[in-house]
Amino acid sequence: MATALKGSLREYSLPKILTDLHRKRATGTLAVSTPNFTKKAYLVKGDVIFAASSYEDDRLGEMLLKAGKITVEQYDKSVEMLKRTKKRQGAILVDLGYLTPKDLFWGVKYQVKEIIYSLFQLEEGECEFVEGDVLTDEVITLKMSMGNLIHEGVKRIDNWTRIRREMPDTGIALTISKDPLNLFQDVELSPYDKKMLTIIDGKKTIKEVIDSSWMNSFEAMKTIYVLWSIGILEEKTVEKSQAVREEEEKEEAGGTVSLDELLQPFAEEEDTLIKKVEEIYSNLDRLKLNELLEAGEDADVEAIKKNYYRLAREFHPDRYFNTSDAALKDKLTAVFDALTAAYTVLKDDYKRKEYFASLNKQADEMPEEKAQAEEIQTEAAHPELPGEGMPEEVKHAEEMSWGEVPLEGTLEEEVKEEEIKEEKEIVSEIRRGEKDEGEELFKKGVDEFKKGKFEDAVALFRQAVDIDSEKPQYWSYLSLSLSKVPHKMKEAEEALLKSIKLEPLNGEHYANLGSLYLKAGLHKRASGQFEKALKFDPGNVKAQKGLKQAKESK
Predict the structure, then answer these.
(1) 532 or 252: whose pLDDT is higher?
(2) How far apart are CA 361 and CA 354, in angstroms?
(3) What is the rounded average pLDDT of the residues 543-552?
(4) Residue of 520, 524, 496 whose CA lies nearest to 510
């Protein structure tokens, strides 16, 4: 989903910018510039992983000095060596014995967080978000929830005028959010935050909450501002249709989630969580919506709602931050989105009846029709194994990494460890160079595509995937270009299947495959792919429109 943003910090609230980017799971660079410096936050799938700054006081050495981790003498010595060797200051401090690797790890994360927190205190400046792959060679990256980053950053704002400007009018009533993504986010609330939540009832205005608080007016307003910024509090809107009011009254009457549940941390062993996520994730394609929500087909709306909130809390994407499994975030996100999509259908009487009616209709389909509809899933699930049909010696060569080429006879035993290390470094350098070349070819391909030179674009994208076949974006653009060339539909499909294999949780790939089938007149196949796209990305506009068009064309 494309995300564009450019403007003044006076036009945009930084907490809301970060919240919006997080909700859209955006990947790219957010730059905030003033006449004196530029600070950047790098986001991957909606989470900040690194930050950089041109402001001298934000450099690692200065940060460590201010934090009391090194002395002035040690700082000066490291700067002297930095100028002479051009090595990174952190590595120099470790080499000199002034820091342990553990200290350096802490220091880099501390530096990143402080750069981000400092952004919240800026009142003047220009901000711009540029979407695209984050090209950073940083080994140490941040693993912290957006909720905690915003919570801490906003707490450092002490400007009453700014807080009043960014907050809703004090005559507006606030209520606790009903959105599980906000409710169950990973954020460490202070005792003051928790106590403030007990006063919020959806009826008192902000002014009335402040007046009834135990804190002074500024501290009370700031606490409300913090909770509002992270999305736990939201405006209680007044002008609503009768249907919406009745729906909200039902929600409130049912007690969506108690404050005690909201404030209670979810205690569960990491291994147990991973096992549960793996089990549901691996069965997402097979589970019915009511099975996903652990409800019977005759369950009432109240039971469905309670199950949804319980499961949304258990499988919230932010639970990834308390685990060591790097792959868990995408799987949690897929499960959470599937739960939300299921709840959206089953809580609505009309949609629920329509869904179960469609299941009954599918059960009556002829087996061969089912096989045709599921053909693409079979192809994606059982791709041709690499090396099939190859001669043994070729297969063996394919399986070896470049750093593992065997040497002849006894020479292999005599190669020194240092020489092997040097060879591996050369190989790594070659690989980096090749990947840079692939990126350059890809960019040229995009340029040719924009000019309408589709065959030239195909040639460039083919070269890019030859160099780096693990980039799903390369395959996706190759498919798009092939779809514009006559008689290349089959190749376009194969390229998209490569993208899906590499990035199975990206709804955009399924939406593109659906569009390809729609163009070919394969409406049933198209519908299947659009539905899968919406399972992973419920807000995908292309899939929504495509599914509607496919159903109308049947």
Answers:
(1) 532
(2) 10
(3) 86
(4) 496
Q: What is the DSSP letter of 256?
A: S
| pLDDT (tens digit per residue) in 20-79 | 999 999 999 999 999 999 999 999 999 999 999 999 999 999 999 999 999 999 999 999
Tokens of 516: 């390809």
- Which tokens belong to 537? 């990305």
Mean of pLDDT values over 213-238: 90
What residue type is 271 in one-letter code?
A: D
Question: What pLDDT is attached to residue 200?
Answer: 92
Q: pTM of the predicted model, to two decimals?
A: 0.63
Quick one: tokens of 155?
């707490």
Three-class SS of residue 38? strand
Enter the DSSP assignment of 285: T
Spacing of C-alpha 194 from chain mean position: 28
CATH assignment of 421-553? Answer: 1.25.40.10
Write out pLDDT tens, residues 124-141. 999 999 988 886 666 688
d(CA 546, CA 337): 20
Locate the domains of the chain by residue range.
5-146, 158-256, 266-364, 421-553
Sequence-ordered list of residues with C-beta below 8 angstroms from that of 193, at least 6 positions apart, any chain: 223, 226, 227
Please give the Cα distance from 120 to 163 (Å, whole number). 11
Torsion of CA 64, 68, 70, 72, to 10 degrees: 100
CB contact set of 273 (below 8 Å; sequence gap of 6+): 319, 323, 328
C-alpha distance across the termini of the chain, in Å:
28
Alpha helices by DSSP H, 67-100: 72-85, 89-95
Tens digit of each residue's pLDDT (9 = 90 or more) over 450-479: 778 888 899 999 998 888 888 888 998 999
Radius of gyration of the chain (CA): 27
C-alpha 25/C-alpha 46 separation (Å) is 4
- Backbone φ, ψ for residue 486 (5° rounding): -55, 140
Please give the pLDDT value at position 391.
44
Contacts of 366 (CB under 8 A, 6+ apart): none
Give the Cα separation of 6 and 13 in Å (integer).
Answer: 12
pLDDT at position 326, please?
77
CA distance 402 to 427: 7
Residue 162: count of CB within 10 angstroms of its CB: 16
Does the domain made of 266-364 have the CATH classification 1.10.3720.10? no
The model's pLDDT over 384-396, given as tens digits with 9 standing for 90+, comes to 433 444 444 433 4
